[in-house]
């Protein structure tokens, strides 16, 4: 099931590379935007969100991912970085609860880590097969 979901995400082009910058105010690389979109879709499916829940939850999830990224980038000390990221998670867990309930609010973080691990596994497998640069999200040529 996990494998199928990851393959679906990859096949829909959500993690295909594009080194061009996104138009508009957003200065994140297109890969980051596509990975976030894939993560949001993955979490939505894994938590089995209704359309109403997703409408309320997804903008909040986007803010959470942005703050988490900022906490990671702005803190060079590993312990401080870990603490800041934990503070972000605790704050957003409380914000997620009214929308999706306590149980699923806690699962957001488990599913986030699951998605990240699947992407790491996919990239590692590609490197082991000689599929290109380390960290590259380019699809294998068949």
What does this structure look like?
This protein is mainly α. Helices cover 72% and strands 0% of the residues. The protein has five helices and no strands. The chain has helices at residues 2-11, 30-47, 51-74, 78-100, 102-128. α2 (30-47) packs across α5 (102-128) and α4 (78-100) crosses α5 (102-128). The longest helix is centred in the last third of the chain and has 27 residues, at 102-128. The two termini are 24 Å apart.
Query: Which structural category fits the helices and strands?
Result: mainly alpha
Proportion of strand residues: under 5%
What would the principal axes of the Cα set say about the shape? globular
The main sheet comes to: none
Helical percent range? Answer: over 70%
SSE string, helices as H and strands as E: HHHHH
Mean pLDDT: 81
State the end-to-end CA separation: 24 Å
What's the alpha carbon Rg, rounded to whole Å?
Answer: 16 Å
Count of helical segments?
5
Question: Spans with pLDDT under 50 lasting ≥5 residues?
Answer: 11-25
Strand segment count = 0
